[in-house]
Amino acid sequence: MFTGIVRELGTVTALDRDGDGARIRISADIASELAEGDSVSVAGACLTVAAGADGSFEADAMNQTLGLTTLGELEPGDSVNLEPALRAGHRLGGHLVQGHVDGVATVAATADDGISRRLRIKLPTELARFVAAHGSIAIDGVSLTVTAIADVTAEVALIPETLERTTLGALGEGDRVNVEVDLVARHVERLMQGFGTEREGSD
Fold this sequence. Notes:
With 203 residues, this protein is mainly beta. It contains four helices and twelve strands, in the order E-E-E-E-E-H-E-E-E-H-E-E-E-H-E-H. It has helices at residues 63-68, 125-128, 160-165, 183-193; strands spanning 8-18, 21-27, 39-42, 45-53, 56-62, 79-84, 103-113, 116-122, 136-139, 142-150, 153-158, 176-181. Residues 197-203 have low confidence and may be disordered.
């Protein structure tokens, strides 16, 4: 579990891809805090640390993850938002984020607004119903509040801290971003669907 509060910008140093998936190597100061088996959010996707040494760590991404996120598009030199898993007793500064990317959205427009910048993204149609004005959304692992919603587009405001400390400040029209909708919204929809006589996972 994560909070959507980015701890550091890491740098991709290698992405070795084959038919079974990909191994991503990232250089970051927080690598010294991570051990094999730890969870870490990379651009909003929860990955498991497979190895680490000399100020970097490696994580594997299976083909499903590569297909549902932008991780497969990474190249050496790219920056990624990083957040280690939330520890019991630590502050929940953003909102509950699982690191389970729901889909990829496209930046529709950006516009400066005083000290902040407005970012409008076009959501996949199947995700738009989970996003509401003043609700929470995670974009590339960053916890944000939705300021406006219209059809399949959502708008957020990026404060100077977010612009400086995350990859969102470098986004432009046409860029693709990982999106995780609010956890509660997904569960509410599931509850409203009701259940049949068969339970998931039963024989």
